[in-house]
């Protein structure tokens, strides 16, 4: 991993806007990946750094970039429950139905981890509730396994 890649990913983790701006001015790649395939955008989103995520998106970061496990920024924030960043990613064209290596989607993460406000937002924007993971489980199955009755209500209405 190159030094600019290390620096931009670290700056994204911390939300250091000035460093990200300077690196982009110096032509650092906003889609650079670390050894796990994490991009600055994935890292910024996972660490709840809204302004850094927006700057990266405005600078050409790929909204649907996937790490080596197939996870996207949207999947990370659906798991974490960062509603404002979910909305940001949707506004920048995030694919709501991408699946990671085990077939999970952002909607499934939201249901499994009780992020019901995220679940509702994803559904409002057209997330597909019929997708199955590699085990053949749907978002309904995953919500039921977790005892997330509220998610089941949201999914059925």
From TrEMBL:
<dbReference type="Pfam" id="PF12796">
    <property type="entry name" value="Ank_2"/>
</dbReference>
<feature type="repeat" description="ANK">
    <location>
        <begin position="36"/>
        <end position="68"/>
    </location>
</feature>
<dbReference type="Pfam" id="PF00023">
    <property type="entry name" value="Ank"/>
</dbReference>
<feature type="repeat" description="ANK">
    <location>
        <begin position="69"/>
        <end position="101"/>
    </location>
</feature>
<protein>
    <submittedName>
        <fullName>Ankyrin repeat domain-containing protein</fullName>
    </submittedName>
</protein>
<dbReference type="InterPro" id="IPR036770">
    <property type="entry name" value="Ankyrin_rpt-contain_sf"/>
</dbReference>
<keyword id="KW-0677">Repeat</keyword>
<dbReference type="InterPro" id="IPR002110">
    <property type="entry name" value="Ankyrin_rpt"/>
</dbReference>
<feature type="repeat" description="ANK">
    <location>
        <begin position="102"/>
        <end position="134"/>
    </location>
</feature>
<keyword id="KW-0040">ANK repeat</keyword>
């Amino acid at each position: 991993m190159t030094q600019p890649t290390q620096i931009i990913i670290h700056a994204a983790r911390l939300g250091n806007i000035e460093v990200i701006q300077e690196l982009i001015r110096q032509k650092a790649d906003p889609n650079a990946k670390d050894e796990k395939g994490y991009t600055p955008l994935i890292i910024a989103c996972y660490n709840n750094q809204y302004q850094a995520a927006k700057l990266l998106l405005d600078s050409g970061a790929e909204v649907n970039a996937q790490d080596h496990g197939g996870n996207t920024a949207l999947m990370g924030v659906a798991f974490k429950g960062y509603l404002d960043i979910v909305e940001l990613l949707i506004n920048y064209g995030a694919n709501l139905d991408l699946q990671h290596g085990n077939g999970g989607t952002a909607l499934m993460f939201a249901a499994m981890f009780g992020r019901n406000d995220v679940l509702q937002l994803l559904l409002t924007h057209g997330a597909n509730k019929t997708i199955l993971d590699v085990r053949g489980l749907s978002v309904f199955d995953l919500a039921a396994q977790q005892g997330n009755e509220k998610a089941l209500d949201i999914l059925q209405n």
